[in-house]
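Quick one - inputs below.
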Amino acid sequence: MRDRLLEAADRLFYAEGTRAVGIDRVLAEAEAAKASLYSHFGCKDELVAAYVQQRIASARASIEAFVAPIPPCERALRIFDWIVAWVESPDFMGCPLQRVVGEVADARHPARVLAADQRDWLRARFVEWVKAAGVANAPQVATALLVLFDGAVIASVQDGPRRARDARWAAGALLQAAGGGRAEARTSKLRKPGR
Amino acid sequence: MRDRLLEAADRLFYAEGTRAVGIDRVLAEAEAAKASLYSHFGCKDELVAAYVQQRIASARASIEAFVAPIPPCERALRIFDWIVAWVESPDFMGCPLQRVVGEVADARHPARVLAADQRDWLRARFVEWVKAAGVANAPQVATALLVLFDGAVIASVQDGPRRARDARWAAGALLQAAGGGRAEARTSKLRKPGR
DNA sequence: ACACGAATAGACAGACCTGTCTGTTTGACC
DNA sequence: GGTCAAACAGACAGGTCTGTCTATTCGTGT
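Output:
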């Protein structure tokens, strides 16, 4: 029951926004009664938080499954292929976390707290991957890639998937300039580009 | 009168979102009557569109005034200083256009049409600036900087202004790797990094 | 057979939303 | 002074929203 409600909420919240979708719509989609929802989640804000939590869990699982078969030194670049595949999926509507942050003004809202955690997680992954790529200035480059990641997703909402590919290109250029990047590019003449 | 309404709408819509703020709040803030609003704007969606239009106009003016005294070849990089200043302003709440796009699902909404125009304008400016920086692959690099621009703004909402500075660093690295960048960096040994 | 937890349908309260309409007041121009 | 457009206050309709509550039904384990 809880899962059915959450699944319905996920579909509607992601497609139209948490604010645009009322409880009644979720109940109709899940074919559930109002009391079920309120006994499981307490209030709408908690349902939103559960929705965000579920999105985070599935994103982490998806990313980990994607990078698992990829050599660590290539992950920092290849994660942008994951983004491309994501923004090309037919029902792509932007990053659910970015949207919730935009809709909920209060940073202490439970859903926003979860979103902040997820950002820390993602940034830590980037640092890992960039270090594995053999880059000297790993934290700086990792953060740059994180910003590029955010930009790839938000820009694809308006401009289409090509922006994710543009971001991939930029990530490759950054990694190469920083002395890391793909394994086959390791022999580049610029190992320590100063700065 | 129209200006007073628009000014009040701007404050409230930007601070809390167009969906979270009702007509009555705008009227109270502007100390205006309901009939005034509806005679000037027709409906709320048009007020939202007017709000977006005003934000676009002021952003363009601000950017143009900022880059005017800067040598064209430096503008592609220095525009990131403009972003830093913006995200550091105390009432920064993200990009108003990104937020409206996130709130309004329908891409044909008048406000979203305006937002799409503004993106074209911004991208054209980046192409100009990157060309002036003497970069070979100007459109590609310009688009990369546009994505970085988007990422700088959205990432600063959650992570604070440091992300805008990180984006500036990445922009500098990208421009340098592409053979352009600041005038004093022109003598860099890597003119054609081959991709 | 019975008890009990869980789901159901749906009325209801109270608030808020957009948009319309009526009637009044103000102020500028002729 | 007269006229007319614009702004005013605010009631009102009709809808939506969250959240509570009552009363009923279903299924399972004992």
